[in-house]
Amino acid sequence: MVASAAVFWRIAFRNVWRQRTKSLIVGFILFLCTGLIVFGNALVDAVDAGMEKSVTQSVSGHLQVYSAEARDALSVFGDEYGSMPDIGVIPDFAALAAAVRKVENVRAIVPMGINFAMGQSGNELDRWLATLRQAVREGDPARIAERRDEVRAVCERLLQELQNTRDVAAADSAIAQDIEQARRAASPEFWAGFDADPLGSLEFLENKVAPLEAAMSELWLQFLGTDLDAFAQNFDRFEIVEGTAVPKGQRGFLMNHGFYEEAVKHRVARELDKMKKLRAEGASFESDADLRSRRDQLPTQYRRVLYQLDRKASADLTQRLRALLGTPDTALPDLLQSFLKVDDANFDARYAFFYEHVAPQLQLYAAKVGDVIPLQGYTKSGYSKSINVKVYGTFRFKGLEDSDIGKMFNLVDLVTFRDLYGMMTPERRAEVQALREQAGVKDVKREDAEAALFGEAAPAIERQVETAEIDELAGLAKVARGEANQAFDPAELERGVALNAAVVLADPTRLHETKAAIEAALKDAGLKMQVIDWQAASGMVGMLVVVARGVLWVIIFVLLIVAAVVINNSMVIATMERVKEIGTMRAIGAGRGWIRRLFLAETAMLGLVSGGLGAACAAGAVVLWGRVGLPAPNAFMQFLFGGPRLHPWFESGHLVSALVIILLFALISTLYPAALASRVSPRAAMASDG
Amino acid sequence: MQAAGPIVVLEDVHKDYPLGRTVVTAVRGVSLTVQRGEFMALAGPSGSGKTTLLNLIGCVDTATSGRVTVDGHDTARLKEKGLTKLRLERLGFIFQSFNLVAVLDVFQNIEFPLLLQKKLGKAERAARVNEIMERVGLSKQAKQRPAELSGGQRQRVAIARALVARPALVLADEPTANLDSETGERIIDLMRELNRAEGTTFVFSTHDPKIMNHADRLVRIADGRVVEGTN
Ligand SMILES: Nc1ncnc2c1ncn2[C@@H]1O[C@H](COP(=O)(O)OP(=O)(O)O)[C@@H](O)[C@H]1O
Ligand SMILES: [Mg+2]
Question: Of all protein residues, whose CA lies closest to atom 25 belonging to ligand 1?
Answer without folding.
Answer: B47
